[in-house]
Amino acid sequence: MQDNLLLPLRRSWGKSRLSKFDLPPRTISNMKTKLLLLIVLCFLTSSFKQKDSVRPAPPLLQNLNISFLLDLSDRIDPKKNPGIYQRDVEHIKSVEAAFVKHVQRKKVMLLNDQMQVFFEPIPSKPDINKLSEQLMVYFDKTANKGKIATVNKKYADVPSKIYQSAIKDNFYVGSDTWRFFKSKVKKYCIKDNYRNILVILTDGYMFYKGTITEDKNMTTYLTPALIKEKKLTGANFKDIIKKSNLGFIPATNGLNNLEVLVLGINPSKSNPFEEDVINQYWSDWFKAMNVKKFSINTTDLPVFVDPVIREFIK
Hints:
Protein name: VWFA domain-containing protein
Structural class: alpha/beta
Number of helices: 11
Helix content: 40-55%
Largest sheet: 6 strands, mixed
CATH class of the largest domain: Alpha Beta
Mean pLDDT: 86
Shape: globular
Strand order of the largest sheet: 3-2-1-4-8-9
Organism: Pedobacter albus
Strand content: 5-15%
CATH architecture of the largest domain: 3-Layer(aba) Sandwich
Low-confidence stretches: 1-21, 47-54
Radius of gyration: 32 Å
Number of strands: 9
Order of helices and strands: HHEHEHEHHHEEEHHEEHEH
Distance between the termini: 86 Å
C-alpha cells in the first residue's frame, strides 16, 4: 500500500535525476575525448617508469674493448729491477684469461669483443711492432674454440718476446704515457657500445724527454728528483700538493667511457711516502680527465695481483 503511494514520487525523482544529467551530445563528445587523453597519458607515464627502471645490460651481454699500454722504459731492465718484466708478462696473461673467460660465457651470436696492445712512442724495432700485431684480437659470431685456443697461446708467448726484444740491445726508448692520453687514448681505446678498459703497466713515474712541459706547478712528468724538489717526502705531502697545486697537467678530458687499471707501481724505497705521492698524482690526473673508473696498484707477486685484475674486469 505504502509502496503504491510512493511510486509516483519515485518516478518523478528518477525523471528529475535523469533530466539533470541529460547532457548535450557535444559535451559528451568532449568528455570522451578528455577520457581518451587521460588513458593515453596514464599509459605513457607507466611506460616511462618501466624504462627508468630498466637496468644496464648484464655483464654477459657487455662488449669488452681491452687495451694495454706497455712502458718499455728502463724500468724493465733486469739489472735495475730484477723480475719486473716477468711480472708484467704474468699480469698480461691474467688480463687475457679474464677476457677469454668473458668471451666463453657469452652466446656466440652476441660476441663482439676485442683486445690490443699499444706503445708510446712506437718502438723503432720492427720485430716488436710485428709481435704486437699478433696480440690484436677480435671475437665475433664466427669465433670458435680453435680461435680461443690460439689467443691463449699467443698471449702465453708473445708478450715475453716483446720484453726480451726491448731488453736485448740495452737501449730503452722510454714511455710517453702523457702524450698517449693526449693524442691517442680517445682514438684507439674508446669505442661506442663497448666497456672500454685500458691496462697500463708502469712503475708510476712519468718521463719522456720529448714531452717535458710545465704549467706553473703542474707538469707532464713525475720523477723521484721532482718529488724531492717539491719536498713531498713527509706526512704532509697532501697539504703541499693542494696548497701548491701540484700534479700532472690534464692531457685531455671527457674520458667518461674509459676505465683504467694501473699495474706495477714501483716507488723508490728512499721515501716512505713515495707510493702515496705517486697515487695522488695519478688519481688527481684521472679525475681531472673524467675517467669513469680507475684502480692503481703497486707491484707485487702475480698470485696476489691476479684476483685484483679479475675483480676489476669481472
